[in-house]
Amino acid sequence: MASITKDDELCSFDVPETTRHSGGHTLYKIILQVTPKELTQNSYQLVYWKRYTDIRKLYDVLSRYHQAVYRPGKFPDFPEKSRFMERFDPVIVEERRVATKKFLNYVLQHLYLRTHEAYINFFQKGDKVLLPDVETVPLQPQVINSQSEVINNTNSITTLPTSTNESIIEPEKDEILLTTDENEQIENVTNTCAQILEDLNDLQFEQQKEINKEQEEFNLIKQEVDEVANLLSLPLATTTKNNNSP
């Protein structure tokens, strides 16, 4: 249903204009702007014309529901009910238009409000208007100067005079010149290798520490076993000695 926004759509309400109905009441133009997040889909609008009395009823229902469910946050204010003869006052109409836009966008941001039955019924029927695609200027290929232009540009460069005491060092043909990006890449690789070696050393130290700890525990257990064995051998030696005595 178009009135319930989806996770893959960006939506917002606007109330751009009002009009006087022949029946003696004011109609408010409500536009729901829907922009799909997928670039392959076009944006569109849902247009509704609503009486202020119907908008006010929706406001009262959702406001009471907001209070009943004890949701945090302050519900938007709405203009006080004006007298019958003031309903066409431009100031009153503008105040209602601004309040309606603020109220509907607040509802749109809260799932428990925009899924309420009163909200869904309010936006049952609307005129869908597809928006045209945004025209983009295609990228133009870069023009590469021809060889003749390069030669002309080279010939047009004036040679600055240099001192006879200064010598110009030209790089050898086989010399490798490193750019700034390449130097940064080499530095990053060097730092990464150093970090890996440091981590390996830490791991080796921790492993050796565990081995030493296990060795100490083994020695303690062996010592306790030897002590118990010695204690058990003492009565046996005493009995043998007594049996051998005349």
UniProtKB/TrEMBL annotation:
Coiled coil, from the record: 186-231
Residue span(s) of domain PX: 6-130
UniProt keyword list: Coiled coil
Pfam families according to UniProt: PX
GO molecular function: phosphatidylinositol binding
Name of protein: PX domain-containing protein
Species per Swiss-Prot/TrEMBL record: Adineta steineri
